[in-house]
Amino acid sequence: MDHIRTIALVGAGQMGAGIAQVAATSGYDVRVYDTRAVALQNASKSVAKSLDKSAAKGRLQDGETAEEVASRIVWTSDFDALRDADFAIEAVVENEATKRGVFQRLDKLLDPRAIVASNTSSIPITKLCAATERADRVIGMHFMNPVPIMKLVEVIRGLPTSDETFKATVEIAHQLGKTTCESQDYPGFIVNRVLIPFINEACYAVMEGVASPTDVDKSCRLGLNHPMGPLALADFIGLDTVLAIAEVLHAGLGDAKYRPCPLLRQYVDAGWLGRKTGRGFYDYTSNANTDA
């Protein structure tokens, strides 16, 4: 653990930015790579704003300022800038081919001792191990969204993942202030193995006319004591991501109960992806009264 000083993030989306913030707050030097300049700019602004709020509430370590924490993060479109990382976390789109490509690039760039983790929410880690020449140093490290708030990290071993890699990853998660659960390397791991069928069934309830999205969510919030209904949560996650995970579960487990709801697929085809596009099961483009 002592040799891990620099953490690299590949992907400056919501998850990558959140992990970068938590890592910098915990004292690590951080490098965040993305090919999209606008993503880097937006992530930098989002993290700075979040750090300002944390500082105002006295939540930064050792009395540091937001500016001091932010100075530990380098935002870059130069992949070579990740070269000195001791630990890398991939946080790109939930697509196996894309993730394998990232792992292959990191494998060639990083020191052979570096650990490469994936923030995948469903794709088998063993497949990502096989994309590298350091299969024993590849692991799953699935953060929850929003990263600065949610405490859980699922840690997933691939078949070749070493005990040393697992131990180091758990220790880093604890350094980041997270609580870990170990999952076996099966599609969806723990959280999404349970959550996605729940969301998918809520989609079927709407499609089959059982209830409106508002009433489905209200029933789950008040009847199950959930802080957010499944459809509002799906909009928050992104319906494209929900569909991608559902497809991984269906293909990987081969059970019809995981079949993605046709209405979910139709919304994704329409570009109604939830909060990030302004429309999903709810309309976010106006002050419409929604359960979201």
Largest sheet: 8 strands, mixed
Count of strand segments: 8
Shape estimate: globular
Distance between the termini: 41 Å
- DSSP strand (E) fraction? 5-15%
What percent of residues adopt helix (DSSP H or I)?
Answer: 40-55%
Number of domains: 2
Strand order of the largest sheet: 3-2-1-4-5-6-7-8
CATH class of the largest domain equals: Alpha Beta
- Round the mean pLDDT to the nearest integer and report it: 95
Structural class: alpha/beta
- Oligomeric nature of the chains: single chain
Rg, Cα atoms, Å: 19 Å
At CATH level 3, the topology of the largest domain is Rossmann fold
What does this structure look like?
The protein is α/β, with parallel strands linked by helices and 292 residues long. The chain has two domains: 6-183, NAD(P)-binding Rossmann-like Domain (Rossmann fold), CATH 3.40.50.720; 192-277, N-(1-d-carboxylethyl)-l-norvaline Dehydrogenase, domain 2 (Orthogonal Bundle), CATH 1.10.1040. Helices cover 44% and strands 13% of the residues. It has eleven helices and eight strands. The chain has helices at residues 14-25, 37-56, 66-70, 96-109, 125-129, 163-175, 191-207, 213-224, 230-237, 239-253, 262-269; strands at 6-10, 29-33, 73-76, 87-90, 115-118, 138-143, 152-157, 179-183. It has an eight-stranded mixed β-sheet, sandwiched between helices. Strand 1 (6-10), helix 1 and strand 2 form a beta-alpha-beta unit. It starts with 5 loop residues before the first strand and ends in a 23-residue tail after the last helix.
Secondary-structure map:
Elements: E1 6-10, H1 14-25, E2 29-33, H2 37-56, H3 66-70, E3 73-76, E4 87-90, H4 96-109, E5 115-118, H5 125-129, E6 138-143, E7 152-157, H6 163-175, E8 179-183, H7 191-207, H8 213-224, H9 230-237, H10 239-253, H11 262-269
Parallel strand pairs: 1-2, 1-4, 2-3, 4-5, 5-6, 7-8
Antiparallel strand pairs: 6-7
Helix pairs in contact: 1-2, 7-9, 7-10
